[in-house]
Design a protein that fits this description.
The chain is an alpha+beta fold and 500 residues long. The protein is built from 13 helices and 27 strands.
């Protein structure tokens, strides 16, 4: 009997071991499944897919998005385009004179326009584009619940196309908050809400197609490009991320027809927010100013200056008595760092300087003669400098120079050094364009650094003084544009440039 018991225990042992092994296998599988579940829950933090619906986001955000309607009294009708002639043609003034003689040409009439905006403060602060409300006599803000409130302009900034409005509601308004556009990436989902074609609140969705886009709209271009449908009337509306934060202010589209073709642009919140805060506090912007005209460092220029890589901003001209001149910065220097920040490209420098505190002394690193040098610069205020130049032009003493500045041109005499730098033939005559303001009329007409101005108003020129004097004479005659004969790469062409 004892023998039989021992035998039974011996037979039971393998069964128990197998049961224990099965339990361990089950535990391992369960743990693996639990781990996979945790990874699946965490996956959106690394690669968020398209949401099943944008409905919850749209329902939450739409009440804070508003329609902006404006009206303006103008004399006469809108001028039709000159048949067969591009805008800015030297024949414009003759065509306008013809239109002024037509019956009813000077009868005042009201012009209305529509745009979008969004509330960022429950007490009634509304953000929109400057071009939506520019020159408006009356501005009204229309809410999704049917409420309409009159708005006053707190401040506006043409350079970034941002405007701040104030309405006076009876209670607290629904509002949205800004997010950080700097953390947004190409491929992220975004939602645009606005008033396309005056239809009222409309929601569209897409992705960020590109960041830091320069479309020559202004000196501080760094647009977010999106394929979320943005049409006429969306201007001033918000671009949201999936957290419901405003990361951009919809501003521009590229479209031959005026409708969306999947290329829209928004001012990033990183650019807009500092401007908005200044407009709210001061009613105007307060940007830093260096006092230089700059141009792109091309591969050819970099090689001629002994630089390994084309980078930085080449100083083409230094404003007399400006911060740069007082700091010892010279024409021909390449600014590669400013206030501790690298300057990868020419267009980065204006944004860095603009964001620097006025009156602050900062370090700038320049390349001069192949060597790095550090200089201390006390940053001035851009708006004060622009006002002084405008006053000088109005007084007449600096009228000629300011006439050229109005076109957005930096000029220099065509000496032997300039001819070597730009690989120009020895017999080349005229005045060299050293810098072009990307937001100026000359840039709009395609003039670029390195071009040669041969004639102004059909008069030959050989010095910057010749150009500025002739331009000033054309302005005194009441001309709205001046005809230039420009040599670009050896090809001559006439270009009409606005001087208003």
């Amino acid at each position: 009997m004892a023998k039989a018991l021992v035998s039974a225990k011996t037979m039971a042992a393998p069964a128990a071991e197998e049961e224990r092994a099965g339990f361990l296998r089950f535990s391992a599988v369960f743990a693996l499944l639990a781990l996979l579940a945790l990874l699946f829950q965490a996956a959106p933090a690394f690669a968020r897919g398209a949401p099943e619906s944008f409905a919850d986001l749209a329902e939450k955000l739409s009440p804070a998005v508003v329609n902006i309607s404006t009206s303006q009294t103008v004399n006469g009708g809108a001028r039709p385009p000159l048949p067969g002639m591009p805008e800015g043609s030297p024949f414009d003034e003759f065509f306008e004179e013809f239109l002024q003689r037509q019956p009813g040409a000077n009868v005042p009439r009201k012009v209305q326009s529509l745009g979008s905006g969004f509330v960022v403060d429950p007490d009634g602060i509304v953000i929109t584009n400057n071009h939506v409300i520019e020159q408006a006599d009356e501005i009204k803000v229309n809410f999704s619940d049917g409420t309409t409130l009159a708005a006053e302009v707190v401040g506006r900034d043409p350079k970034t196309d941002i405007a701040v409005l104030q309405v006076k509601p009876d209670g607290k308004l629904p509002y949205v908050e800004f997010g950080d556009s700097n953390v947004s990436r190409v491929g992220d989902w975004v939602v645009a809400i606005g008033n396309p074609f005056g239809l009222g609140g409309t929601v569209t969705a897409g992705i960020i197609s590109a960041i830091n886009r320069d479309i020559n709209a202004g000196p501080y271009d760094a647009f977010i490009q999106t394929d979320a449908s943005i049409n006429r009337g969306n201007s001033g509306g918000p671009l949201f991320n999936l957290e419901g934060e405003v990361i951009g202010v919809n501003t521009a589209i590229i479209s031959p027809s005026g409708g969306s073709i999947g290329i829209g642009f928004s001012v990033p919140s990183a650019t807009a927010l500092p401007v908005i805060e200044q407009l709210k506090e001061y009613g105007e912007t307060r940007r830093g100013w260096l006092g230089v005209r700059i141009q792109t460092v091309t591969d050819e220029i970099a090689e001629s200056l002994g630089m390994d890589v084309a980078r930085g901003a080449l100083v083409a001209e230094v404003t007399p008595d400006g911060p740069a001149e007082e700091a010892g910065i010279q024409a021909g220097d390449v600014i590669v760092e400013f206030n501790g920040q690298e300057v990868p490209e020419m267009r980065d420098l204006p944004r860095i300087v603009a964001d620097t505190a006025i009156g602050e002394t900062v370090s700038a690193v320049v390349l001069r003669g192949g060597e790095r040098e550090s200089v201390d610069v006390e940053v001035g205020r851009l708006e004060e400098a622009e006002a002084q130049m405008a006053e000088a032009g109005a007084a007449g003493d600096g009228g000629a120079a300011d006439a050229t500045e109005a076109m957005g041109l930096g000029l220099t005499a065509l000496d032997e050094s300039a001819k070597r730098r730009y690989n120009l033939p020895e017999e080349t005559e005229g005045v060299l364009v050293t810098a072009v303001d990307p937001a100026g009329p000359a840039a709009e007409r395609g003039i670029r650094p390195g071009d040669i101005i041969v004639e102004v108003a059909q008069e030959k020129v050989s010095t910057p003084g010749d150009v500025t004097e002739l331009v000033a004479e054309e302005k005194e005659k009441g001309r709205k544009s001046v005809l230039l004969l420009v040599s670009s790469g050896g090809d001559l062409r006439f270009i009409a440039v606005r001087v208003e």
